[in-house]
């Protein structure tokens, strides 16, 4: 097996274990055992658990950052931007469910440089989202509500979507996008 594919296999196995047990509870020996190899073999492909954690979290964080940059650059209404944000959150949830769990639950275990990079990306993402909401309120597209409540309500739902999605047996993505946008933007009252 090529080193690049073995590294991917290590990261994939570790992401599943990190999601199940948490970063601190998983050892390199656990990862090797789940792969059916010796722990010392892992070090031919990665430097350690911290590299795995950084790869998982920063890959997903960069996906979010890239998605937000694309949304911000579009010349569409704030509501349309929020619809696009919800859609790419769903795409990331479906593509990286285990890595997303690691990002949400274990980001604080990143080492200083990677931690700083992650926090910078997260803060920038939230600030861009906040600006979209504020612009939508000012334009009369979004009801006048506290922007932080709107931001919290949408992001808390989207950040934990991987938990719900896993239990529901992989609901059709298009239905999920349609209905999630409708509920988060229009509510449930007729």
TrEMBL record:
Which GO-annotated molecular functions does the record name? DNA binding
User: Which PROSITE patterns does this entry report, sorted A to Z?
Assistant: HTH_TETR_2 (PS50977)
Alphabetical keyword list: DNA-binding
Keyword DNA-binding found: yes
Q: Which residues bind DNA?
A: 27-46
Q: Which Pfam families match?
A: TetR_C_24, TetR_N
Domain spans labelled HTH tetR-type: 4-64
- Is the Ion transport keyword given for this protein? no
Designated name of the protein:
TetR/AcrR family transcriptional regulator
Q: Which organism is it from?
A: Marixanthomonas spongiae
